[in-house]
# Entry
Amino acid sequence: MSFSVTILGSSSARPTPSRHPSAQLVNVHEQHYLVDAGEGVQQQMVRAGINPLKLKAIFISHLHGDHVFGLFPLLSTLGLYGRRTPLPIYAPAPLGEILECHRRYFDTDLPYETEWHEVRTTEHALLWENRTLEVWSIPLRHRVPTSGFLFREKRPPRNVDKFKIAKYNLTIAQIAEAKRGEAVELDTGEVLNNEELTYEPYKPRSYAYLSDTAWSPKAAELCRGVDLMYHEATYATAERKNARLRGHSTTEEAARAALRASAGRLVIGHYSSRYKDENVLVEEARTLFPNTCAATEGKTFTIEKQR
Amino acid sequence: MSFSVTILGSSSARPTPSRHPSAQLVNVHEQHYLVDAGEGVQQQMVRAGINPLKLKAIFISHLHGDHVFGLFPLLSTLGLYGRRTPLPIYAPAPLGEILECHRRYFDTDLPYETEWHEVRTTEHALLWENRTLEVWSIPLRHRVPTSGFLFREKRPPRNVDKFKIAKYNLTIAQIAEAKRGEAVELDTGEVLNNEELTYEPYKPRSYAYLSDTAWSPKAAELCRGVDLMYHEATYATAERKNARLRGHSTTEEAARAALRASAGRLVIGHYSSRYKDENVLVEEARTLFPNTCAATEGKTFTIEKQR
# Structure
């Protein structure tokens, strides 16, 4: 029942010897989701010990090269690896057209389907859902249409007390009723209140990915109560003007977003190549939001269960 | 007057944690040429201390992703860096169409021109020429149209003896005549034979890039006398069948090509990801061609001047 985020790339557009462009792997209950796909993402996955074949879906925030150029080689390699399962890709338009171009020139015989789903970057909408997870779009403010992503674990079923299962000799059907929060009627006709059999499950966990964006109080509001927030901090506070000009955020703005959302923890990244040491940026953000960490390649942030 | 080759990527298509897909930087008299552009090539250039803005031209052997996916991010980044000089790119068709797609979606305001020149992969033709260098295509045998590249330094001008310049008080025009191999008439009317003033320059140097290809005696013949030959050796000799099936070469075939061309030195690369240690492959090739080296990321092979 894991919930974690592994940083595959922490840099902005200009390459540096050690940082890679934006990409992250979100692991929810051992289901793998890729968020952005900067150049080199497939090698970064291999380095982090992540099997690219296990990808459930890909979410692309916007169509700037440093967030998407690693997608095309990854798609080709998944073909080499023999993927057969269709691969959903959530991204703004016109990714569908671009994928078609790529396929025409490089992957005419790809053994699986790529399913592009358009992300409307002005809407806060449910994009993806399965038994345990929802992924929502978060409109962002950048130079091109851009969407963040909010990963929300669904409320887990109630926990059924093992001792009560033994005591009342519950059947699988009765356990399922209890998990759903229902009362259970025993074979004897006796009816047990749900509270008698179950206890509160852990709190659903959540992760927000907000990149690239200028300061956006609305985006922060949509992430209210999030356990872990990634917010880009391309620039130090002194570069406020530059940030505004380029549709990016400063460390201070990232920290303010985390404060506004009452986030549990903040991770910053998408560092401009001018900052050789990202700790300068982290220290700045910490003056406003102490629980701030640096995105660095290969680092995994785990959200532990809490009751 | 350097002549060297720096390996930026040594792997075949499947990514490994440490090897990068095919790319090399050929430096001839401090003019930089990129040969193939696998994913991550721009970061590999930065790591090797090579300024991407200094690129004179790019040569792409064929349009398989592991030789070209790094081109598009590189072109975008050169725009970010503010390149203004047109960039010639030599590659088989339909690279022109693909560049157009890329430009339409990612680089509508690129501040320089990309000039695609079609490489006809069945012809041994002169592709590029300047004062000191010629680059020739070498038809190869692969699953798609593929061309190798032969970098041939032009014959350097004759060396004019410094003592003779002083002795006869030669003018710049007279020195130029001597360099061209001509006789020189002094102001006194005396005519000096060229041999009196000059001595043999160093031998023109050459480098052949042969990847990807199945065994091709014709390609080897076209590289006769080459100082340094890079030949792909995707597989060990035992995998001969697999190599043939995939249009690749074994270590033995790479060594035979070097023997056939009477190459000075052989570098092998494009290793299948199954070989964790490339020395196994190098040892095999050395049994036939002792002067064989392994392509490894960041390694530079220099061709020294010889008289």
